Amino acid sequence: MVIIGQFNRFDLFMISEEVFRRFVPEAAVAYCDKLYQSLGFEFKIKKNRQTKLGDYRYNPNGNKHTISINNDLNPYAFLVTYLHEVAHLTAFKKYGRTIQPHGKEWKACFRKVAFPLLKDEVFPNAVLAVLEKYFSNPKASSCSDPILYEVLRTYDLEKRDTVFLKEISVGQLFSFGKKNFIKLEKKRTRSVCEQVETKRKYLISEMAEVNSLNQ
Q1: How confident is the model at residue 2 (pLDDT cuts 50, 70, 90)?
Q2: Cβ neighbours of 15 (radius 10 Å)
Q3: Where does residue 213 rank: exposed (0-12), middle (13-18), buried (19+ CB within 10 A)?
């Protein structure tokens, strides 16, 4: 079953292809729908979640698999995220729950499920070139690969008000997840940030999208 938002439900066989047509490049619609029909999972389109682009969950009660993707992703980011989560499902079905979430088994499944779409009919050349390099060693998410994340972000239809944390200078104020922080120190791919109100310190990814509070 495909679920968009909180209330609307659509019949599995009649509408799923139309849903994919709304969210992924046209050349990928049939393949995405084929994966959906053959693997048998509940597919949810969610409102923006700051902490993730999508996820895969398994509920042993009823042997239920669920994949959810954020509804504000551009078609290329949506497609990469969808394939990422489908790879989790196929890895679970093939190897069980004892494997590492983003270990070698998942990486092999991700490459296999994505390979049929790595062509210029689906992705622009700029994205395709980065994807081909990315799949030599896939990361936990596209956000974990700064080059891939940035090239995917360039295809967003609406200009975002946010910036990457890496664009925030040490000592500068920013908001993230409805809380205010000050950036204290950069450590490789993350930064030590202090929440203004509580003085608690957090490690936040340099690729996190934040709002600058400095004028």
Answers
A1: low
A2: 15
A3: middle
pLDDT score of 166: 84
**Could you count the other beta carbons within 10 Å of the beta carbon of residue 137?**
9
Q: Is 179 helix (H, G, I), strand (E, B) or coil?
A: strand
Q: Where exactly does CATH 2.30.30 map onto the chain?
A: 163-212
Give the pLDDT band (50/70/90) at residue 9.
very low
d(CA 115, CA 113): 6
Distances (CA, A) of 55 to 88, 113, 167, 181, 195: 9, 16, 27, 27, 27
More confident: 139 or 201: 201
Whether 94 and 109 have beta carbons less than 8 Å apart is answered as: yes
Q: What mean pLDDT do residues 209-214 have? A: 85
Whole-angstrom distance, CA of residue 94 vs CA of residue 77: 26
CATH architecture of 163-212: Roll (2.30)
